[in-house]
Amino acid sequence: METVAFRIVASVLTALGLLTALPPLPERSFEASEAILEVPARPVPTTSVPRPPTTTEYLDNTIQHCGDVTRLLLKNGWPADQLAYATEIAWRESRCYPWVLNELDPNGGSIGLFQINQFWCLPNRYTKIGWLQEQGVIDSCDDLYNATLNIRAALAIYNYGVEKHGKGWGPWSSAKDAK
Asked: Is residue 12 part of a domain?
């Protein structure tokens, strides 16, 4: 079953141009979390300003390409049917670089892999400390530069969208709504 799921994710990533070739299947059975997809590095979008990592300790500082993002998505609880699309969003938003800041976005800008707007981590009329802090996902907005915490924050926001509106990709407004 894991092999079929891996092939489906790999096929979708190939079709999106995020994967150059399907890796050969091993002769043994393996967990999908063991799969690492090779994706060529791409430049940072011009609307985002590269920012060096903060002093926040990285939980998993192994982002070399978008395949690493897919691995972290799986490792951090993303639904298997959303892995390919979530990787596409990370590519579109940050070119899979965790240290990207788009200062042009409102509310202080958007941060990290999924370009999470600081609305989600700053005090506002809906929350005194920030919604992501209330959910226990992060301690401060700077935590969103951490690839693992950004992925967890994106999942929390995605799940919030599913629970409240029946679809999770709404906060990534230019993304088509997958589910």
From this structure: no
By CB neighbour count within 10 A (0-12 exposed, 13-18 middle, 19+ buried), where does 139 fall?
middle
* Bridge pairing between strands 110-111 and 100-102: antiparallel
Count of C-beta atoms within a 10 Å radius of residue 157: 23
Domain hosting 54: range is 45-165
Rounded distance, CA 18 to CA 122, Å?
33
Measured N-to-C along each axis, helices 83-94 and 66-75 cross at an angle, to the nearest 10 degrees, of 130
- The CATH number linked to 161 is 1.10.530.10
| CA–CA separation, 156 and 106 (whole Å) | 20
Q: Is residue 1 part of a domain?
A: no
120 occurs within a structural domain: yes
Q: Is the dihedral of CA 96, 99, 104, 106 positive or negative?
A: positive
Name every residue whose Cβ is closer than 8 Å to that of residue 20 and which is 6 or more positions away in sequence. 14, 38, 39, 40
Predicted local distance difference test score (pLDDT) of residue 65: 85
pLDDT digits (tens, 9 = 90+) for 76-129: 999 999 999 999 999 999 999 999 999 999 888 999 999 999 999 999 899 999
